[in-house]
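FAQ: What does a multi-protein file look like?

Like this. Sequence, then tokens, then the next protein.
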Amino acid sequence: MDISRILYTLMCILGSTWTQALTVCDQCDCTLSENTDDEKGNAIVKPSCSEGRITWMNPHGAMRLELNPGIFTDFRACVIVKSDNTKTKVSKEVQSTKYKNHRTKYLENEVKLEPWFTVIDRSREYCVQSTDKQPVLLYVETETTTNSTGLPRVTVLYDIEKYSPLQEDLMEECRPCDEEELINAFCTSHFVVVGRIADVLNYPDEDRTRIGVEVDQLIRQSTEQFTRIKRTPATQVDNHIIHPGYRSDSLLYGQIFAPEKCGIQRGEGTLLFTGRVRLGEPKLRCAPFYEDWRKILETATRDGTMECSFD
């Protein structure tokens, strides 16, 4: 029998067995559930979107996460990992090419795991840039802890954005939006509200600031980031006191997040808040004073440069 045919047959058999041992998920949001009676194996997850959530119930073995937004350019992938009743280790899969035989110039790809971070409970945001437009490959492993009392679960929130050299500027995301960016943010953001800063709470270890917003006008929200709460002389939200304002009825209130390095403080004035839900949290994009925004809006409407309709 032809030796090449024998090798091909063996590869098909081995490939079939390997595929059956894997759990493959190619949706934006995936839920994997494993039986503790199963042998430890590897789950392969290849999300088809630029953002989403992977929930791994009762994890054991490992999960290989391939982040590839399908764009023909370099990109930045960011993740937040929540680890309930288990210890989770995340590594980056790094591929390199080397000469196997310098005489024949035969190339061989070498794959190794580079430890990235370990988490119990909730991690901060971690980001990695793609190399040569290749997918970002992550390897997620779990380890049972001595104080685990409930069902273990790992949740990976991911977000992929086209890479821009501006991302190298550490203060770029703190820069005020220009007029064109404001119009785009008003038309495309997940949430757009008019209101005032009610409270500010910093988390230096996570480089993020939580901004409590008391809303006067809700223009748009994709999910319920802003909801009604009962107004009292000292309204408390998440163990933090917010300012009651001037009415005694209920108020529309919500929380959005921004980098702590931006130094956001509570002040007077009405603002237009815009942003998107990113990695499970509403993130601030642009926040001009409302009067300044009204002037920009009037000019764009008169000049025909407004990108969307509005009430």
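And here is the next protein:
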Amino acid sequence: MSVPCGLELAQLRSYCYPLEKILPKLRTWLVTYWNMCQVGDFMIDNRAGISRTLHRISAIRNRKGAIIGLTCRVGRAISGSANLLRDLVQDGSSLLLIGPPGVGKTTIIREVARMLANDYKKRVMIVDTSNEIGGDGDIPHAGIGSARRMQVPNSDMQHKVLIEAVENHMPQVIVIDEISTKLEAMAASTIAQRGIQLVATAHGVTIENLIMNPALEMLVGGIQSVTLGDEEASRRGVQKTVLERKGPSTFMCGVEIISKTQLRVHRCLESTVDAILSGRFPNVEVRKMDYLKLNETAERKPFIYSSSDKANKIIVEDAQDLSNEITSLDAFSSEVPPNMGEDCWEERTPLRLFVYGVSHHPSTLTIEFN
């Protein structure tokens, strides 16, 4: 290293300072190279995996194509993570899962595939985009149960693999991870027209994100601009140019994953899209699961109740919280005097409740009224 003459001591120190950062960078490069030797080959999408695991390794390359960094994504198969969606997939409805990255879409869709294959004995074929559902290697992970898996050699060929799975392997259910292009959306729409149940994921926070996404709007039926007549526009109270759904939706139900324990369910995806385009609030169900209060989430049964003042919204909450509310109501009723309200009893119409179902479950308390 050459240093010009006549420099002060502080200036000489500034020349030596960059040397203090060389060794840590060299060590980082060595660790990265050692880690690369432990994983499989990186594909065109710069993704690799560890055989018989659900982990994913993504590479960061420089301008010359050399790998200078790695991103490790830990994958887990959680039994019971899709119990809140059991009633939706049981009747054969196509299901679309929407959520931001890292919220648990792949974990839920993996459990749905296992549930359909093992519990309901259906022929399930998984089109695994990046080997995240079934894991890396030729032997799939045990988390998918008896479902079969087709690997995608290149993400640009996923729409062809979808059609090949239908034509060659006679599946009853097709599970797709990461629908991200218009060709994949068209292939999914073609499969839905053949009467095959679809379970897929897409990136987005809400249904509105899919509606405004030109590449994925076909999943919800497509959007078109319609010009109304003067009388029709006056009757609706809107402008003459409005947005409407172009055709039928590819999926019957839609699920927005809010968090790992909370879901927002749209039972009729077409009605949700129509309501959003017309400026109305869609009918939704909010389902919650508490992992901390239960040892086995597989035995978790959601408690569904509706409120009269919010008829367009069904909330699924913890039954333990509701039982506490019922107990507090009983304590409050015991404090009311028995003769209170006798003077005005004849002026009001009595309300009669007929109980026809009572369930005493260790984790839930259900009382249904007719």
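Q: Is there any per-entry metadata?
A: Some entries carry free-text notes. For the entry above: Confidence is low (pLDDT under 50) at residues 9-17, 294-338, 340-346.
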